[in-house]
Design brief:
five-stranded parallel beta sheet, 8 helices, about 15% strand, globular, binds shikimate-3-phosphate
Amino acid sequence: MSPPTANLYLVGFMGTGKSTVGRQVARQLGFQFRDSDREIEHAQGKPVSRIFAEEGEAHFRTLERGFIEKDHPTSRCIVACGGGLVVPPGMLELLRSRGVVVCLHAPIETILKRTMHTSHRPLLQVDNREQRLRELYAQREEIYRRTGTMVLTDSRPLREIAGHVLRVYRLEAAQFNK
Ligand code: S3P
């Protein structure tokens, strides 16, 4: 059987490790790696925080859709998707039409710890960051759960998480396009 070539889209909340895990899995598969935030920043010539501040979140969501529709390779590519990319209606279906979708998951306490001392996420530029994260997490939990296979990224070495994602990818990619 020839090795799978379908893309892999890693979705999930901020701080679940999509970029770290994605890079590792891409190395193991010999695939290209893209991070949707970095690609959009590069194309727009400014950081996500400035896009939010100057053009608004709705515009950023349009840029995310455009990136998924046309601005990345259509095979042998792993995409770490920004945490809100899969949230707007139709985005999960769009991702599924283009490849395998795997959701990374971590408990809210872990996400709080991982994001507490970072400053680049515009949605977390508020006085009460913990409350904001809990609200967003509660709003989105159901959407992330619908995305498909969930892989827990808490308290496990990267090697193990990447191995789990790879197994899921191989199983699901074999069914892709059938
Ligand atoms: C967002 C998550 C961020 C980035 C933007 C909005 C979100 O990506 O796309 O700040 O809505 O959850 P990460 O998940 O990589 O932090």
